[in-house]
Amino acid sequence: MTDRSNRRGFASRPSDAEGWIKASDTPPRGADDGTTFTARLTIDVTPALRGRIKVAAFKRGVTVAEMLRCLLAREFPAEPGEPS
After folding, report:
1. pLDDT exceeds 80 at position 58
2. 81 falls in which pLDDT band (50, 70, 90)?
């Protein structure tokens, strides 16, 4: 039987929280084609709230993702000098 390696795996917890948060700010390798890097955010909501969100987005003629991105941008505006 072989010994396990001590190297960190892909799901290991980072030692520096600030560096971990800002790590997504760097564009992925090979993204020279001008594509925008996005980060996925997952939250748990009740089925009733999910339904209300979907109905609201449909009535506004936008996707749920577009509507929530706008809501989050309004609630958490960028600081002066910080990229949007």
Report:
1. yes
2. confident
With contact defined as beta carbons under 8 Å apart, do 45 and 53 qualify? Answer: yes
Distance CA 61, CA 63 (A): 7
Nearest to 38 by CA among 50, 28, 47: 28
What are the tens digits of pLDDT across the range 17-46?
A: 676 666 655 555 554 544 567 888 999 999
Residue with tokens 């396990």: 4
- Residue written as tokens 């929280």? 17
Alpha-carbon dihedral angle through residues 81, 41, 44, 66, given to the nearest 10 degrees = 80
Angstrom distance (rounded) from CA 73 to CA 41: 14
What whole-number distance in Å separates Cα of residue 22 and Cα of residue 39? Answer: 11
**Greatest Cα-to-Cα distance within the chain, rounded to the nearest angstrom:** 60
